[in-house]
Amino acid sequence: MQIEKNKSLRNFNTFGIDCAAKYFISINSQSELIEALQSSIHSNLFILGGGSNLLLTKDVDALVLHINLKGIELVNETKHHAYLKVNAGENWHEFVQYCIHNDYGGIENLSLIPGNVGTAPIQNIGAYGVELKDVFVNCSALEIETLKKEEFSNSDCKFGYRNSIFKNEAKGKYIITDVTFKLTKEEHNKSISYGAIKDELTKNSIKEPSISDISKAVISIRESKLPDPKKLGNSGSFFKNPIISDLEFKSFIEKFPNAPFYKISETAYKIPAGWLIEKSGFKGKKYGDAGVHEKQALVLVNYDNATGKELWNLALKIQAKVKEDFNLTIEPEVNVI
Ligand code: EPU
């Protein structure tokens, strides 16, 4: 186990923010994880996965554990399903590609989402009509205080829109070490009703898409709208789409009849934050090196050397203007430190 001091986290967060960790350990095995947790290097702990949902506004005065546990294991198989146990440090998109290569279906719509397997359940990642919870069986997690291993089933996780128990009552208490997925073999349940996927498949004259075709379509849609963090620092959607009650929706849509919306239940509606931000005039705007992406207003970008504070100030400015223009509060999806 190697302890590094004052380590730059620039390569460990997809915004590419140059903040430092007081202490840093890359965790490559369960025993290293236990050893690091038993050490008393620093009283504060900070658990780092793929760094794709993180905005660092200051140096991290803590022991940063970079969860780098690797490995994919087929733990069970039936005629129609494969159960894969995947260690937390596997890159999410590489895992999706592994599944497509082996013809395991269920996560092709989640292609190209940045981040790692172990952090995917925390915010129940989702895109194009599929969410992690649709394929999630359980995960193992180490309780930080007791060093006991616990298992969380799908219902234990209390998944919601970009939400789970790990963002609420279990926040900061556990380290997810592996996740087990239930994926389909041969007869896949394909989810292609989402408009953008349908259009992309039609454009390429694909009538009976394979999971590989769906993955390629998703990659192409995402690449056309979302910046590649390797080229332009960003952390995907910066804000969540606000959810409002039917009463609030009634007065909102009277004032803004052209607004897009999704009805998510009899009494709740989701309004695309990207639309609100665009209409508030921020799309494509740049303030120094901090900016709003020109093709997707929901994404904040670091054009070169923006600090976390500059990006956060921009986020606050957007939040205030959206509130002023629409009387709606948009909340960050990323963790701001
Ligand atoms: N829109 C605008 N202007 C913009 C962006 C969007 O008017 O600049 C409008 C679009 O025209 C559309 C609506 O907003 O009517 C929704 O846009 P889009 O379909 O692009 O999806 P989204 O709601 O902005 C969500 C997820 C994405 C996910 C897509 C596709 C959240 C916060 N974001 O975005 O997730 O890829 O749906 O399913 O729920 C992420 O979490 O990092 C992420 C990229």
- Distance separating the two termini: 26 Å
Number of helices: 7
What's the number of domains?
A: 3
Highest CATH level, the class of the largest domain: Alpha Beta
> How would the global form be characterised?
globular
| Rg over CA atoms | 20 Å
Q: Beta-sheet strand percentage?
A: 25-35%
CATH architecture of the largest domain: 2-Layer Sandwich
Ligand list: uridine-diphosphate-2(N-acetylglucosaminyl) butyric acid
Specify the helix fraction band.
10-25%
Report low-confidence residues grouped into runs of 5 or more.
none
| CATH topology assignment of the largest domain | Uridine Diphospho-n-acetylenolpyruvylglucosamine Reductase, domain 3
Helix and strand sequence:
EEHEEEEEHEEEEEEHHEEHEEHEEEHE
Structural class: alpha+beta
Mean pLDDT: 96
Strand segment tally: 21
Largest sheet: 6 strands, antiparallel
Concise synopsis of the structure shown:
With 337 residues, the protein is α+β, with helices and mostly antiparallel strands.
Describe this structure as you would to a colleague.
The structure is a single chain. The chain is an alpha+beta fold. The chain folds into three domains: 4-67, 2-Layer Sandwich (Uridine Diphospho-n-acetylenolpyruvylglucosamine Reductase, domain 2); 72-225, 2-Layer Sandwich (Uridine Diphospho-n-acetylenolpyruvylglucosamine Reductase, domain 3), CATH 3.30.465; 233-336, UDP-N-acetylenolpyruvoylglucosamine reductase, C-terminal domain (Uridine Diphospho-n-acetylenolpyruvylglucosamine Reductase, domain 1). It is 23% helix and 29% strand. It contains seven helices and 21 strands. The chain has helices at 30-38, 92-101, 195-203, 211-225, 246-255, 273-279, 308-326; strands at 3-8, 20-27, 45-48, 54-55, 60-67, 72-77, 81-87, 104-105, 126-127, 130-131, 136-143, 149-153, 174-185, 233-237, 243-245, 262-265, 268-270, 286-287, 290-292, 299-302, 335-336. The strands form six sheets. Strands 6, 7, 8, 11, 12 and 13 form a six-stranded antiparallel sheet that branches. The protein has a four-stranded mixed sheet with strand order 1-2-5-3. The radius of gyration is 20 Å and the shape is globular.
